[in-house]
Amino acid sequence: MYKIISNSLITDNVYKLEVEAPLIAHSIKPGEFIIIMVDSMSERIPMAVYDINGDNIIIVYSVSGASTYELKNAKSIHSLLGPLGNESKFTFDTELYQDKKVLLLVSGTGIAQVNRISKRLNELEIENDIYSVDKSIFNEISVVNTNNLSDLISKYDAVLTVGSFEFMEKVVEISNILNKEVRVSLSPLMLDGVGLCGSCRVLIDGEIKFACIDGPEFDGTKVDFETAKKRMELFKTEEGRRYLREVEGNTFTGGATNE
User: Fold this and answer.
1) pTM of structure
2) What are 16-67's pLDDT values in tens digits?
3) Where does the chain show beta strands of DSSP type E?
4) Looking at the domain 2-84, which fold is it?
5) What is the arrangement of strands in the sheet containing 79-84, beginning at the earlier edge strand?
6) I need a labelling partner for 157 at 20 to 30 A (CA). Which of 73, 79, 197, 213 fits?
7) Which CATH code for domain 89-185?
8) At what angle do helices 225-234 and 165-177 cross, to 10 degrees?
């Protein structure tokens, strides 16, 4: 069991959760994620780590279904799996961004994925800014109107965006037109988090990848957003999953990657 230090409402349906988890707190890199199980029978919930406080990890999440509703009312956490995924390119290949301006553009709780990336870039003295679209769950985060994305993106050399597939697709389209590097942090429906279930399968430059083990961050210009959106809808129902098993064959699960 993991001790919950606090679990407080920030705004609307968004909560900030602090959990004692020293091994994860001292090892997780910006861009990586964890998976939470509230109890032994709960669903697995993939979560970004918003911040670190000593031996504790801080998570920002919205209550959008049964699993997060359960988390809102939890007294302790049964399981925390992580770190999972890969470190952000912006904090890993830092020499590429020493003389560049980086825009971290999010919607909703996407701030959780980029906050530690921004902090690390600040430590490395790499210029960066966080903007939230239309509204922000934190007062200190700058807000940009959806209609002004082109003007904002034009001021930066590289962009990392997090949000819905529709939002990220729009940011990628604008960035591409402006000839800006653009990366996306994908958060499709993840279950096991280690590439076995295949729920987060995506097409990257025509190749099958799994967001949990190959991502979650990818070159935005190489993501097949249309296929990802359709697949996510199908995966929500048993009938849809049966269809995907038929059409995807042995690539339905992460056990059969393009090796």
Assistant:
1) 0.88
2) 999 999 999 999 999 999 999 999 888 888 899 999 999 999 999 999 888 8
3) 2-11, 14-20, 33-37, 45-48, 51-53, 56-62, 76-77, 79-84, 102-106, 128-133, 142-144, 158-162, 181-185, 201-204, 207-210, 217-219
4) Elongation Factor Tu (Ef-tu); domain 3 (2.40.30)
5) 45-48, 33-37, 79-84
6) 213
7) 3.40.50.1380
8) 180
